[in-house]
Design brief:
Layout: H1 19-36, H2 38-49, E1 57-58, H3 60-87, H4 89-95, H5 103-126, E2 139-140, H6 143-151, H7 153-169, H8 175-189, H9 195-215, H10 218-229, H11 243-283, H12 290-293
Parallel strand pairs: 1-2
Helix pairs in contact: 1-7, 3-6, 3-7, 5-9, 5-10, 5-11, 7-8, 7-9, 7-10, 8-9
């Protein structure tokens, strides 16, 4: 069980990993990420430098190739997660906290983080500090394949970018640093939205690491990523003029509804705790020190006599 819940502290101080070994693992993980997501990263940097470029046109062959890459990334992620879980099974029992909460708790927490990240990115864009533009959807030959790729996005990202860094590095690094590392990598995949897109994805990417660390339900991250974040993709196959608007508002309501569900109970708990402290301080009797009230008497003379009850 974890002995330390602070995100900047190592959970088990009795476990002393090698600094060199930790550095090698971090470097290997970063190189694996760069290799597996190289096409997405290059495309993001190109779009960042050319924000006004026309939307890409994808043939059916291109879409099939993308789904093949998705399958490869998912397979590598699953194999890596299972392998690390097996190799570190003894260490993980001492450095990982016990799994807590329900699947609904995990989903609400991550949706709340996505909503807060979106609000932050939009604010940066409005202030002119970092551009956050939703890119023009690609022109595709097969809308069905486009939808499949969109709702399956969690399969290509969550095992590798949320679960793997936790299982590989927890105990070696504070969870806070793992969140920053994985968040930075996630942000680089979304630079095609602009600098604000990096901030946006880095924030909810870091939150995904924390949600997995606390709740340990990878499938929740996969489902939320595919069917909440990318629900707008269904517009490609729904033959209704208002589908895009309905799906967009559905996405907003789910995310910001989750944010309200996450914030309100905690705010009420904080308020209730403050009231309890105030009531406790008011109800505590103040016992005056007789010696302080009668400084002209010697201390021994101010103590009551147990037999007579007199001073």
């Amino acid at each position: 069980m974890s002995n330390e819940t602070h995100i900047w502290g190592r959970p088990d101080l009795s476990y002393r990993p090698s600094t060199l070994g930790t550095g090698v693992l971090v470097l290997a993980l970063a190189c694996a990420w760069l290799g597996l997501y190289s096409i997405s990263i290059l495309g993001s940097f190109w779009r960042l430098r050319n924000p006004d470029a026309p939307a890409p046109e994808l043939t059916t062959g291109d879409q099939v190739a993308d789904l093949v890459a998705l399958t490869l990334q998912f397979a590598v992620g699953v194999v890596a997660v299972l392998s690390v879980s097996l190799l570190r099974r003894r260490v993980l029992t001492s450095v990982l906290p016990g799994r807590s909460g329900s699947a609904a708790d995990a989903a609400i927490a991550w949706c709340a983080a996505i909503a807060a990240s979106s609000a932050c990115a939009l604010m940066l864009d409005r202030l002119g500090l970092a551009r956050f533009d939703l890119s023009v959807p690609a022109v595709v030959e097969s809308p069905t394949l486009a939808v499949v790729a969109a709702v399956s996005a969690g399969l290509r990202e969550e095992p590798l970018l949320a679960a793997l860094p936790v299982l590989l590095l927890v105990g070696r690094l504070p969870i806070g640093w793992i969140m920053i590392l994985a968040g930075a990598m996630r942000g680089s995949l979304y630079l095609y939205f602009g600098g604000g897109g990096f901030v946006w994805a880095a924030l909810w990417g870091a939150a995904a690491v924390w949600v997995y660390y606390k709740y340990r339900r990878l499938w929740v991250l996969v489902v939320v990523h595919g069917f909440v974040m990318n629900i707008q993709a269904l517009d490609r196959i729904i033959d209704l003029d208002s589908a895009a608007m309905v799906l967009q508002w559905g996405n907003v309501l789910v995310l910001f509804g989750a944010l309200a569900l996450w914030i309100v109970p905690r705010a009420l708990d904080t308020l209730h705790l403050g009231e309890e402290k105030a009531e406790s301080s008011q109800s505590t009797p103040v016992v005056a020190d007789t010696a302080a009230e009668l400084p002209f008497l010697p201390p021994d003379e101010t103590r009551p006599n147990s037999e007579t009850g007199s001073l």
